[in-house]
Design goal:
Blueprint lengths: L2 H14 L2 H16 L4 H8 L3 H9 L6 H11 L5 H13 L2 H11 L3 E6 L10 H9 L7 H13 L11 E7 H5 L5 H14 L5 E6 L16 E5 L5 E7 L2 E5 L2 H17 L3 H13 L3
Parallel strand pairs: 1-2, 2-3
Antiparallel strand pairs: 1-4, 4-5, 5-6
Helix pairs in contact: 3-4, 5-6, 8-9, 11-13
Length: 285
């Protein structure tokens, strides 16, 4: 990235930085100065350059999750502020349309997704996410792309949360055939799906491309995500052209839940779905 582009990206980051990023920056600077550390010395402790510490303190490049962990270890003074900030920094890195839903997702009892265009973000590999985000429109800066990739990958902690949520994913077969970045990236994503499907709390199914030839196709109106919250409320989340739609009224949720159940019934069994994914992962293209 050229110096001019980098400067523009950092100026954009300063404008977009949220309250948590500014609070972390102020606290980090105050604690650093209180402990008599220069930016260069602190950077060496954290494993970063002095310019990276400076960028964090000015919000030109807000702290990554990795940097927050290091800040807690080296200058946190036992306060736990940087550890607690990790959750809120993560929320600020999500697109605005997703922030409200992400809180529900993180504490959900069940998550049931039907995706028609791309692999669900919760299941994406790093390479797949980077290619997908980097190739989108309008384009984002390299720094913003990496922030979004980091935020997306951190969602995978949900797989190992205790108590573990039940996670269902139904993918259109076309998703398994659509490469982003390269064919090798797609194969890596397919292999990752197979691994995730081995988890006790995950069920993965594929809706075959010839579904419409065999009668009705319940998923013809697009993807959706159904969630049962920790308070046993049922909500539906959908994204349409960068707009996030959250539906919680029971009369509106009910027909969508019924539609999802029909999509699930029309999909291949979990075993047949994994056989298809395994075959596609091994194909030479």
């Amino acid at each position: 990235m050229s110096p001019g582009v980098t400067a523009m990206a950092r100026a954009e980051n300063k404008e977009e930085a949220g309250g948590t990023a500014h609070l972390v920056a102020a606290l980090a600077k105050a604690l650093r100065e209180q402990q008599g550390l220069t930016q260069e010395v602190l950077g060496k402790k954290l494993g970063y350059t002095a310019s990276a510490v400076s960028a964090m303190e000015t919000c030109a490049q807000p702290a990554s999750d990795k940097m927050l962990v290091a800040l807690e270890e080296h200058i946190g003074a036992g306060l736990g502020v940087f550890q607690k900030a990790r959750r809120w920094m993560l929320l600020e890195k999500y697109p605005a349309r997703f922030r409200g839903f992400s809180e529900m997702e993180s504490g959900a009892i069940t998550i049931s997704s039907y995706e028609t265009l791309v692999v669900d973000g919760l299941f994406q590999t790093e390479d797949y996410a980077r290619a997908l985000i980097g190739g989108g429109y309008p384009p984002v800066s390299e720094q913003k792309r990496e922030e979004l990739v980091e935020a997306r990958l951190l969602r995978r902690a949900l797989f190992d949360r205790a108590p573990a949520p039940m996670i269902e994913l139904i993918l259109e077969e076309s998703v398994l055939r659509r490469p982003f970045g390269s064919r090798e990236i797609l194969r890596g994503q397919l292999r990752s799906l197979i691994e995730d499907a081995q988890r006790d709390n995950v069920c993965l199914q594929v809706l075959p491309m010839d579904r419409g030839l065999r009668g009705s196709h319940a998923g013809d109106r697009g993807g959706m995500k159904l969630v049962e919250t920790k308070d046993h409320e049922h909500v539906v989340y959908m994204e349409i052209e960068d707009q996030g739609i959250l539906i919680s009224d029971p009369p509106d949720v009910s027909p969508l839940a019924h539609r999802y159940a029909k999509i699930r019934a029309q999909a291949l069994s979990p075993d047949d779905s994994l056989s298809l994914i395994d075959r596609l992962a091994g194909e030479k293209q």
